[in-house]
């Protein structure tokens, strides 16, 4: 992508409305724009990161055996009257009427709708287990939307829903998502700790929140500090192994970890003092097992091997991609801007032409840009006529992991500089070596 033809409206000034660093950097880097309170457009740079986050989430959901579908944002109130949540949900639910005066709502979550899909076509235990997910916008009329897309009113969620014949089956489904979440957050460059959690309006009896430690987090959390070093389940994890996944779950729940709502002071004090971690955290995922809470009132049942009808045991599993993007920035930035983990960086590398219009600089940059693009790299080429200083500041701000810098002096020697955004280390090398560094 040539920067001169891209749309990346960089802000020079610090936006006053931004209280935390991720919100400030997302606005300054031209990733998002607020359209009304708590409702955002994702501009091209932000959209690229969000897509990469969603693709990692999708990849790990698929690996764990979940199946993607797409459900609408607008839902009929009738379904929610069946479960009893239409009245229970309160003011966070945006309620609307269509032209026939029928009550509708903008979905804050999808338990009812997915249960309706399930009951309309699944009749036998032989079709279980089943886990259906989508990545879709949600709306919750939050009382205090803030921190940009960290807590917005319209936001994206990956929400998965599992269906099993028995409680034991449902626990295995829960453990699959538990392991998939550990892998997902790790691939996003984050250390998320599963903590015992309250089930809230979703209801149920088994629940964990996945929390990233960050000073700007809204939750107060308490955990054993060994979680920071625990191993993440590998790529070869067998998601069909009941014992294998149970072992992962047991390990990751063997030490104390709880959010303030579930905090047990006495149990926490039993952890040796030097091993206690009391911190602030950002909730990036939340999983629930809630048994037959929806299947009973909504009549979602299957025929079991005993020939009788059984209400299915369900769970739901949420991750917030539009919250994860700022959470990643909270975890990875410096005074100059964002430092993206390679897995979600909007570009793999940025080529900086320090003197656009200078024939040798232009030729060198075009050559590198073409070679890297041809090799399948996602390259941003800063071909604008901004000053070199402005280009360096922009490249640092938007956090692309590597910069290839072409200035007249180096280029005259057939060389360029390669800068690592994270460490700041710069290395001078031949043009060919710079290309090979990224294509090899
Ligand atoms: P919170 O406690 O932060 O309000 P929640 O417990 O109501 O969140 P869940 O119903 O568990 O949220 O939703 C699953 C995930 O969706 C959350 O873990 C979070 O990542 C994301 N999410 C929820 N609400 C918002 C929001 N207002 N803005 C952005 N992401 C959100
Ligand atoms: Mg939650």
Q: Brief description of this entry?
A:
With 440 residues, the chain is α+β, with helices and mostly antiparallel strands. The chain has helices at 21-28, 44-63, 77-83, 85-88, 111-121, 167-187, 242-252, 265-269, 295-298, 321-331, 359-374, 388-398, 408-412, 431-439; strands at 32-36, 39-42, 67-68, 74-76, 94-97, 103-106, 130-139, 154-164, 192-196, 206-213, 219-224, 257-259, 276-291, 301-303, 309-311, 313-319, 333-334, 337-338, 349-353, 379-382, 402-406, 415-420, 426-430. It folds into 2 domains: 3-338, BirA Bifunctional Protein, domain 2 (2-Layer Sandwich), CATH 3.30.930.10; 349-439, Anticodon-binding domain (Rossmann fold, 3-Layer(aba) Sandwich).
Any overview of this molecule?
The chain is an alpha+beta fold and 440 residues long. The protein has helices spanning 21-28, 44-63, 77-83, 85-88, 111-121, 167-187, 242-252, 265-269, 295-298, 321-331, 359-374, 388-398, 408-412, 431-439, and strands spanning 32-36, 39-42, 67-68, 74-76, 94-97, 103-106, 130-139, 154-164, 192-196, 206-213, 219-224, 257-259, 276-291, 301-303, 309-311, 313-319, 333-334, 337-338, 349-353, 379-382, 402-406, 415-420, 426-430. It has 2 domains: 3-338, BirA Bifunctional Protein, domain 2 (2-Layer Sandwich), CATH 3.30.930; 349-439, Anticodon-binding domain (Rossmann fold, 3-Layer(aba) Sandwich). Helices cover 32% and strands 28% of the residues. The strands form 6 sheets. Strands 3, 7, 8, 9, 10, 11, 12, 13 and 16 form a 9-stranded mixed sheet that branches. α11 links the parallel β19 (349-353) and β20. α1 (21-28) packs across α10 (321-331) and α11 (359-374) runs parallel beside α14. The longest helix has 21 residues, at 167-187. It is globular and about 80 Å long.
């Amino acid at each position: 992508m040539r920067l001169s033809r891209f749309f990346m409206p960089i802000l020079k000034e610090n936006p006053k409305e931004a209280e935390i660093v991720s919100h400030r950097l997302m606005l300054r880097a031209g990733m998002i724009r607020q359209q009304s309170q708590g409702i955002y457009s994702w501009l091209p740079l932000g959209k690229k990161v969000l897509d990469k986050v969603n693709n990692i989430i999708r990849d790990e959901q698929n690996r764990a055996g979940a199946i993607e579908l797409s459900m609408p944002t607008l839902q009929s109130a009738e379904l929610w009257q069946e479960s009893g949540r239409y009245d229970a949900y309160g003011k966070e639910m945006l309620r609307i009427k269509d032209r026939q005066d029928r009550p509708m709502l903008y979905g804050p979550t999808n338990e009812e709708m997915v249960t309706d899909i399930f009951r309309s076509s699944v009749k036998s235990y032989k079709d279980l287990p089943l886990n259906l997910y989508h990545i879709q916008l949600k709306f919750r009329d939050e009382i205090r939307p803030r921190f940009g897309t960290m807590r917005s009113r319209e936001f994206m969620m990956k929400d998965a829903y599992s269906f099993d014949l028995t409680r034991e089956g449902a626990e295995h489904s829960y453990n699959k998502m538990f392991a998939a979440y550990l892998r997902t957050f790790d691939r996003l460059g984050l250390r998320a700790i599963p903590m015992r959690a309250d089930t809230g309006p979703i209801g149920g009896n088994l629940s964990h929140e996945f929390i990233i430690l960050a000073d700007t987090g809204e939750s107060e959390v308490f955990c054993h500090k060994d979680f920071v070093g625990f191993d993440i389940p590998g790529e070869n994890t067998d998601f069909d192994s009941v014992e294998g996944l149970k072992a992962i779950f047991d390990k990751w729940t063997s030490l104390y970890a709880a959010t303030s709502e579930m905090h047990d002071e006495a149990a926490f004090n039993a952890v040796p003092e030097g091993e206690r971690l009391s911190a602030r955290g950002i909730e990036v995922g939340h999983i629930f097992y809630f048994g037959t809470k929806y299947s009973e009132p909504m009549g979602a049942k299957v025929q079991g091997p005993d020939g009788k009808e059984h209400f299915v045991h369900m769970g739901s599993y949420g991750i917030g991609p539009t919250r994860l993007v700022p959470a990643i920035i909270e975890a990875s930035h410096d005074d100059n801007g964002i430092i993206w983990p390679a897995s979600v960086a909007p570009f793999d590398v940025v080529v900086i032409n320090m003197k656009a219009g200078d024939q040798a600089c232009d030729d060198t940059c075009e050559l590198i840009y073409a070679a890297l693009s041809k090799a399948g790299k996602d390259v941003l080429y800063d071909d604008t006529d901004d000053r070199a200083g402005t280009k360096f500041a922009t490249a640092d701000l938007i956090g692309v992991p590597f910069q290839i810098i072409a200035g007249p002096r180096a280029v005259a020697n057939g060389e360029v500089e390669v800068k690592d955004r994270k460490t700041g280390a710069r290395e001078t090398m031949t043009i060919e070596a710079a290309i090979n560094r990224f294509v090899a």
